């Protein structure tokens, strides 16, 4: 068992890493508080109907987050690595993993998210693991257990900086690299559509 999280070994060569018993519930509690505040604000400003809709939306998000914490785990065996989420489960052959990139990504207006990228011998992305709910020490043990080349920035970076550090690897999407441009573009399209409706009416 890890110091802050829970790490279970089922045999000498298998490793199971589960969400941190402190970080996971803390993130869930924060989401619940934010949802309650948003719901109350919606009731006061837009009325009970809209407020009820907002509350229902946040309730679904909290339930899904709780399910994710309950089901999530990373399993490493001599044959494969498996990353299981609330619904999806992704499996990759352990022998295909040739490199690990570990980075703490700074999201715009959001928390720092530790992320692990598994690459093959051609440096093609095999698996991306969001390690936000896992203990840092447990992720470190997982990376070391893989026994392959490791790299990554020593300080938190945004998606654009990470893409420049690893050009051509496509570790992050275009939307992640240019979130503000995407936001401005969407806003522009909405405004043009709104103006078009006004002119046509």
How would you describe the overall organization of this protein?
The chain crosses the membrane at residues 26-44, 50-70, 182-200. This is PH domain-containing protein. The chain has 201 residues and is of the alpha+beta class. It has two domains: 20-71; 96-196, no CATH class. It is 46% helix and 23% strand. The protein has six helices and nine strands. It has helices spanning 23-46, 48-71, 136-146, 159-165, 174-177, 179-200; strands at residues 6-8, 15-18, 73-76, 80-84, 89-93, 99-106, 112-119, 125-130, 149-151. A five-stranded antiparallel β-sheet has the order 1-2-3-4-5, with helices on one face. A hairpin with a 6-residue loop joins strand 1 and strand 2 (15-18). The longest helix is centred in the N-terminal third of the chain and has 24 residues, at 23-46. Residues 1-12 and 180-184 have low confidence and may be disordered.
What's this, in brief?
With 201 residues, the chain is of the alpha+beta class. It is 46% helix and 23% strand.
Keywords:
alpha+beta, 2 domains, 5-stranded antiparallel beta sheet, 4-stranded mixed beta sheet, 6 helices, 46% helix, globular, transmembrane helix, PH domain-containing protein, membrane
- Count of extended strands: 9
- Principal-axes shape call: globular
**Quaternary organisation of the protein chains:** single chain
**Low-confidence runs (pLDDT<50, min 5 residues)?**
1-12, 180-184
Mean pLDDT: 75
Secondary-structure class = alpha+beta
How many separate structural domains? Answer: 2
Radius of gyration: 21 Å
Biggest beta sheet summary = 5 strands, antiparallel
Fraction of helical residues: 40-55%
Beta-strand residue fraction: 15-25%
Spatial sequence of strands, sheet with the most strands: 1-2-3-4-5
